[in-house]
Amino acid sequence: MALLRRDLLGYTPLYAEKLDPSLSSIGDSKESFYFGSLEGVLAQRYPNQWPSEGILPSWRQTMETYYKNVLSVGRKLLGLIALALDLDEDFFEKVGALNDPTAVVRLLRYPGEVISSDVETYGASAHSDYGMVTLLLTDGVPGLQVCRDKSKQPHIWEDVPGIKGAFIVNIGDMMERWTNGLFRSTLHRVMPVGKERYSVVFFLDPNPDCNVKCLESCCSETCPPRFPPILAGDYIKERFRLTYATS
């Protein structure tokens, strides 16, 4: 609690978030620790909170090394996505998305207890991630579920098996907006399974000042843009406002 979140960075306690604001239940059954940019304007504007070296020796160094490595992986993945869209490999750099990106690591613990209640409880209620792509590492404990077609009701949920040594990759809302729904953001949730669960999430989101608008190659007269242009920072702020306002 000494490192309670400030500008979303630091510790977030159990039930402090509700990723699906439409639910009447208490907040999501998880606790987390966020840290973000290590250098650049965003790092100065939103400094990370770190436990002291005396409490957790080498922990900060380990986390910063992981951050740099997974950011490199994320950049390469976005280059592949650009090529898949018949764009230049460095497209997302050219439009400013990767110029001091909003890249955040989140360490998550789910207690996992299945609570007997009239209201269903979630480790993480149903949501899509807000940015471009998410790289997720899990400890192999089940609970993560995805909905392949979020436009159909009722939603059909499928368990996601963990693959040792591999990332689970989610497409985020910003990518769906850029591609006019060609690449759809992943609706997912975490259900309690009666066992403690840990995961490490890396969110690679655009620079807040990046203008996200439909790619010319992804729209036409018969398929007009489904989403208006928006600054990445404005969209993400609104999503976070709803997440915490209803918790």
Can you describe what's shown?
By secondary structure, this protein is α+β, with helices and mostly antiparallel strands. It has a single domain, classed as Sandwich (Jelly Rolls). 22% of the residues lie in helices and 22% in strands. It is built from 5 helices and 12 strands. It has helices at residues 41-45, 59-84, 91-94, 173-178, 232-245, and strands at residues 10-12, 31-35, 102-110, 124-127, 133-138, 144-147, 157-159, 168-171, 187-190, 197-205, 211-212, 230-231. A 6-stranded antiparallel sheet has the order 1-2-3-10-5-8. It has a 4-stranded antiparallel sheet with strand order 4-9-6-7, with no helix packed on it. It is globular. It starts with 9 loop residues before the first strand and ends with a helix.
Task: List the SSEs and their pairings.
Layout: E1 10-12, E2 31-35, H1 41-45, H2 59-84, H3 91-94, E3 102-110, E4 124-127, E5 133-138, E6 144-147, E7 157-159, E8 168-171, H4 173-178, E9 187-190, E10 197-205, E11 211-212, E12 230-231, H5 232-245
Antiparallel strand pairs: 1-2, 2-3, 3-10, 4-9, 5-8, 5-10, 6-7, 6-9, 11-12
Q: What does the average pLDDT come to? A: 93
Helix content: 10-25%
The SSE string, one letter per element, is EEHHHEEEEEEHEEEEH
Overall geometry comes to: globular
Task: Give a quick precis of the structure.
The chain is of the alpha+beta class. Helix content is 22%, strand content 22%.
List keywords for this structure.
globular, oxidoreductase, alpha+beta, 2-oxoglutarate (2OG) and Fe(II)-dependent oxygenase superfamily protein, Jelly Rolls, 6-stranded antiparallel sheet, 4-stranded antiparallel sheet, IPNS-like_FE2OG_OXY, single chain, about 250 residues
